[in-house]
Amino acid sequence: MRAGSMDATIVVQRVATTRNAAGTPVETWSDLVTLRAQVIQSSTEEFIRGAGAQDLTATVFRTWFYPGISNADRIVCAGETYDVKEIKELGRRQGMDIRAVSVSTEA
């Protein structure tokens, strides 16, 4: 991994559940860490599902290792939100590939 090839900035967010004034659980996303990353692969596929046509953009981000990131987290990169699907460690805690999917539904 070369630092010069990491030209994107990603924000890893984690969900927290709080209660509003009425006592109803509300999920809020808060920033966990901001990392420099390289976009390794990005592909788009269109699927027709029960909810309508969906564009699934699968992206692989390569970044330095950060402990504690899990599939329950999400990534924000260039204004787009991605759900983390898989994390692959590179070397001995040197880096990691984060496979994520962005889902947008057309009405």
From TrEMBL:
Domain of life: Bacteria
Pfam families membership: Phage_HCP
InterPro entries (alphabetical): Phage_SPP1_head-tail_adaptor, SSP1_head-tail_sf
This protein's name: Head-tail adaptor protein
Organism listed in the record: Tardiphaga alba
